[in-house]
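Key result, reporting period 2: structure in, sequence out.
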């Protein structure tokens, strides 16, 4: 419970501080805070999920407020880009659900956790692994 309280308070304070910023600058601040949390080697549950969630929420707000190709008159392209704006949160949800399904023990028992293990090994070789 301490992680949730601390993370939500930090995100709340950052939102209060950046309330008068433009959405792009607020997104840049959350991107910086997420990158710093990864770089500073903090606990994985402490700040990274909260900053990433706020970053995705801010990106969703920016995507909703930007016009859909105002200079183009092609209706088919407008519908495609509009569909991407509507359906990308669902795709991000399923990717996050897939990544979050990695078990703490016995990753070799299911195909998805074995696939996640192989993907993790390709990004993080065994000599530089920090996370279990």
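The corresponding designed sequence is given below.
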């Amino acid at each position: 419970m301490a992680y949730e309280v601390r993370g939500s308070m930090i995100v709340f304070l950052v939102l209060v501080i950046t309330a008068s910023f433009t959405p792009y600058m607020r997104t840049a601040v959350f991107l910086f805070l997420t990158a710093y949390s990864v770089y500073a080697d903090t606990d994985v549950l402490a700040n990274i999920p909260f900053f990433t969630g706020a970053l995705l929420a801010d990106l969703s707000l920016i995507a909703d407020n930007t016009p859909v190709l105002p200079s183009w008159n092609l209706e088919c392209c407008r519908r495609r880009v509009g569909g991407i704006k509507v359906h990308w949160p669902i795709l991000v949800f399923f990717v996050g659900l897939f990544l979050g399904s990695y078990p703490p023990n016995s990753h070799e028992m299911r195909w998805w956790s074995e696939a996640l293990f192989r993907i993790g090994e390709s990004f993080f070789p065994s000599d530089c692994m920090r996370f279990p």
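The CA atoms of residues 86 and 122 lie 32 Å apart. The chain has a mean pLDDT of 75. This case is discussed further under Risks and Mitigation.
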